[in-house]
Amino acid sequence: MTYTWMRPYSPEHLAVLVTGVLACGVLVVAARRVAGTPWEVRARQITGWVLMVLAGAWLVFTLWPGNLHITEGLPFHLCDWLRYITAYGLISGDERAWAVTYYWGILLNPQAIVTPYLPYVHSPAWVQFAGYWFFHLVALIVPLVMVFGFGWRPTWKDFRFVASVSPAWMAVAMTANKVTGGNYGFFSHRPPTPSIIDLFYRWGMKRHYWILEVSLIALVWTGVMTWPWERARR
């Protein structure tokens, strides 16, 4: 099957990036205004339910018989899991879900924003475009709002929890790749569009590049995304 991709850094890509930056700034300011008041919980829960409904609708859209694409459209990418975890965390206030949203949403998810791989395998294409960008931007904006708007801070306990559950997603994605022949999580090979994985290929990590990627992620999670907050707390 042949299909087209969205061209990275095309006018529509740049427009989405600008929109995301503006939305993030507005929502952080709005969150600061309601932080610590009863409106904070209401805002979180309403947002969470809206996201949960939209995520369910998106799942139906991608798995609809006319749209089903085994190697590209099954819910095994990280963001597929993240949209439900984000919604659940906002609804329930479960800080374990917030932690996953923080570590996955701020570091891993932006790879799909800065270097997007968007093959138009579903119809209509504009719905896939809207869904792709909405959910990826939400996955980044929500944890930024939680930290810089509502004042939530990650701890070493949060880090240990996310580090312990992340391999579960990796195992599921790799298994799905073997069964379907897909490239979920980009563990089988690099995407056809430019990405950070290209650097690992240049360094000679063509077969096991994901090992280096996981190591770098662990370094950033500890040294940049956890330790400074713990140091400030002490």
Tell me what the structure shows:
- The protein has one domain (11-233).
- Helices cover 68% and strands 0% of the residues.
- It is built from 10 helices and no strands.
- The protein has helices at residues 11-34, 38-63, 78-92, 95-108, 111-114, 125-148, 156-180, 197-202, 209-223, 227-233.
- Helix 1 packs parallel to helix 6 (125-148).
- The N and C termini lie far apart (56 Å).
- 29% of the residues are buried.
Summarize it.
By secondary structure, the protein is mainly α. It is 68% helix and 0% strand. The radius of gyration is 18 Å and the shape is globular.
Write the layout of secondary structure elements.
Layout: H1 11-34, H2 38-63, H3 78-92, H4 95-108, H5 111-114, H6 125-148, H7 156-180, H8 197-202, H9 209-223, H10 227-233
Helix pairs in contact: 1-6, 2-3, 3-4, 3-6, 4-6, 4-7
